[in-house]
Amino acid sequence: MVEELARYPVQDVIDKFKYEKKVFEHYMKTAELGNNISCTFGLYRNGFLSEGSGIIGYARSNLSLQEFHNRLLEYAIFPTNPIKEQPMEFLKICTNISGQYDKDDDYKRLNKTVEEVEKWK
Length: 121
Prior knowledge:
CATH architecture: 3-Layer(aba) Sandwich
Oligomer: single chain
Radius of gyration: 15 Å
Helix content: 40-55%
Strand content: 5-15%
Number of domains: 1
CATH class: Alpha Beta
Order of helices and strands: HHEHEHHEH
Protein name: Glucose-6-phosphate 1-dehydrogenase
Number of strands: 3
Distance between the termini: 26 Å
Domain Glucose-6-phosphate dehydrogenase NAD-binding: 40-118
Mean pLDDT: 74
Largest sheet: 3 strands, parallel
Organism: Gigaspora margarita
Pfam families: G6PD_N (PF00479)
CATH topology: Rossmann fold
């Protein structure tokens, strides 16, 4: 997707993210979590995620929502002196689901979660 977006002028990419409702699904190892979630928080912080957007973490680890949020806070790199409430508000649009990467039923549950998140307002 990055290569695809790189072909467009920056403002067109910003407009695409800003005005389309998006559900971001993060498939990553824990080691990658900090960079990816930090970038996604940057989109959120700068207003490039439209209202109703959601972020879904998908991993083999069976984490409660609170454990998932704690991991996000642990690994994310937030800019210095962010508005104090922003990371907590950001967590409200983050959810997670556990599943295997080779099981059809787990991807069906993920799809159901995506459909639920798409209904968020």
